Amino acid sequence: MAIDTGIAIDCAGLVEVGGLMNVYVTDIGNLTAVTAVSSVSVHGYSALTYGTWAMFQLKPNTASWTTTGSKENGITKYETTVQWYIPNVDTNTAARLQNLENKCCVAIGQFRSGEQLTCGISEAYKGTGNGATPWEYNKTYATMSLEGTSGSDFADGNGITVTLTATSFEIPRVYSGAILPLSGNVQANIA
User: Fold this and answer.
1) Which pTM was predicted?
2) Can you name the residues that pair with 68 across neighbouring β-strands?
3) Which end of the chain is more exposed for a tag (fewer CB within 10 A), N or C?
4) Contact 11, 29 (CB under 8 A)
């Protein structure tokens, strides 16, 4: 594809709203179907099929999404880091986080702007292990790390920062499918 088109900034871009609202996470092995958008002008997924995903509501101004690209030996790779803070961790929260340990995570970040981006799954350079589910074998899934903090001051927070990190060979794809939060806002159906 030739480099012959740039990006125009309209009013919505000039008054943009930043930040993440929610993060949805599942294990890549749970996905039963992945539908990439086949249009050249759209870099996205229209469906990541698996019933119930873990839903993490985010405290304002405590979450971030960073994608960094670098080129080495002629190959461009991207590292995406999704990070959020969970305040006042109790036994139920700790159990849910423990459930993510040692999983091959896929995440969808839902931004305040209305956009949704994917992390931990890549359509480019599909794996070749199982022909029916090539997305499982490309080693682009996200891994989780945790950092618990308790401040020394009365006003300091007590909680855990969750970090998902994934390496891919393409920038994160936009997710255009439906997200339906379930009762209690700790799970969501994504289709």
Assistant:
1) 0.86
2) 79
3) N
4) no
